[in-house]
Amino acid sequence: MQSVERPPRDTQSHQAGQLEAALSRSVDSEGAVRGPAITYTETIDEGNTVSISPEVEDILGYTPEEWMGNDVWTRILHPEDRHRVVTSCHAANRARQPFRDEYRMITKDGRIVWIRDEAAIVWSSNGEPMCWQGRMLDITSEKEAE
User: Fold this and answer.
1) Residue 16 pLDDT
2) Is residue 135 part of a domain?
């Protein structure tokens, strides 16, 4: 089994605080509050969704109930992005490092939406990885403006 170094505990606390703040609101680099974000919690290693916010329906067209346990995330990744994003996600999971990527998803009604996905591991007080917490932000308007 490969050993993975974790950041020092004070760095972890700082990162956890930053993640919590990011999950509670979506803020761009200038500090302006942006549209709703999908927040989620997933299991370590298997990547099963434990919880997902109601915004998943507003942004992607799926209810939280439809999303849970159905591997919707992988299925609706744009075919041109799927391999790269899944590979990146697995690499972050193996290395126990934060995940950040931008990719396209196909909504329930067939639209293409650009997503900025950021997730980090939540560590227990005894240093064990507990789960992933993340947010998916709709950045379609940014991508269309480029």
Assistant:
1) 42
2) yes
Question: How does DSSP classify residue 35?
Answer: S
Q: Which residues neighbour 117 within 8 Å (Cβ) at sequence distance 6 or greater?
A: 99, 100, 101, 102, 103, 134, 135, 136, 137
Structure confidence by residue, pLDDT tens digits, 40-59: 999 998 888 999 999 999 99
**What's the first-to-final CA gap in the chain, in angstroms?**
44
Closest CA to 115 of 84, 135, 98, 137: 137
Q: What is the CATH number of the domain that holds 74?
A: 3.30.450.20
Distance CA 42, CA 49 (A): 4
What global pTM score does this model have?
0.76
Order of strands, edge to edge, in the sheet holding 112-123?
49-52, 37-43, 129-138, 112-123, 99-106
CA angle 137, 141, 142 (to 5 degrees): 80
Q: What does the DSSP 8-state code read for residue 33?
A: B
What is the band of 24 on the pLDDT scale with cuts at 50, 70, 90? very low
- Based on the structure, what is the number of domains in the chain? 1
DSSP, collapsed to helix, strand or coil, labels residue 25 as coil
1 lies in a domain? no
Is 3 inside a domain boundary? no
